[in-house]
Amino acid sequence: MAFGTPGRAIVVTMFLTAFSGYTLAADEDPLQDFCVADLTSQINVNGFVCKDPSSVKADDFTFMGFRNAANTANTANGFVPTPAFVQQLPGLNTLGLSILRSDFAPDGLNGPHVHPRASELFFVVQGKIEVGFVTSNNTLFSKKLEQGDVFIIPRGLVHFQHNIGKTAAVAFAVFNSQNSGVERLQNTLFGSGIPDTVLQKTFQLDEGIVDQLKKTFTP
Fold first, then answer.
1. Source organism's superkingdom (predicted)?
2. Would you call 9 helix, strand, or coil by DSSP?
3. How many whole angstroms separate alpha carbon 143 and alpha carbon 133?
4. Same domain assignment for residues 197 and 175
């Protein structure tokens, strides 16, 4: 097929290359009914190797860990996540989907963090939760949610959830990836080994404050 001038051909090639990369930006589509993860396999792939279909059971597609509330009493921020990712629910492998239960004590906080590989649908089933995300041009979108409300958080944007009610709150987060990933800003910045001089200059902090923050957030 001729595209006319060489310049136009180059433009078309660049467009097709860019579009192809965009379409592969999310988890790849499955090529069979299911690919239950073999969590014992030593083979390294982008995801998990499929278990032999003859050994697959209904339990591979079942997770019962959301039945009871998590204990938030001994947590620093009053927040406990209970994940149903592929490691807990092997049947999710290759399906581009995962879910997380979030339990909040009164004033409980899931502080600013990022999911680099997934957008998030946040659904409140109990309590009152303020949720928000910040765009790449530093605009905050936030909302106070109650039971039955849903909020969408686009992929890769900094966001938070805070229980603003006087009682415990519960929400579920659904991700369009079997492994959304999470980067908590305080741990990423002060617990990853970024040089002190970089942090001091970036945040205009004294050396002693940076040292204290590193001690607080180093794993």
1. Eukaryota
2. helix
3. 10
4. no
